[in-house]
Design brief:
Number of strands: 0
Helix content: over 70%
Distance between the termini: 55 Å
Order of helices and strands: HHH
Number of helices: 3
Amino acid sequence: MTFDPAALILGAATGLLCGVLYFGGLWLTVNRLPRFAHPGRIMLLSFLARAGMTVAAFTLVAGNSAPVFLTCLLGFLLVRQVGVHRARNLKRGEESG
């Protein structure tokens, strides 16, 4: 097993991009749900598209490399944490304002 920093950087970048697309897509879907006659179907289709894209990207980039997969996952979870932090701050701002 060799250490390839370029592969790890690519994994982290892929995780970050997938996280932005996944959670951004979730945010868009949730905000647009009231417009749809069948919101459950839209949520399911959105989930399948977002999850499929994420799994495909992780698989393509990581292949059989556990370290690269873990950097993908780390980048993805970092985007999630930033999003949760921002959402909490927005909610606090609404409550105090």
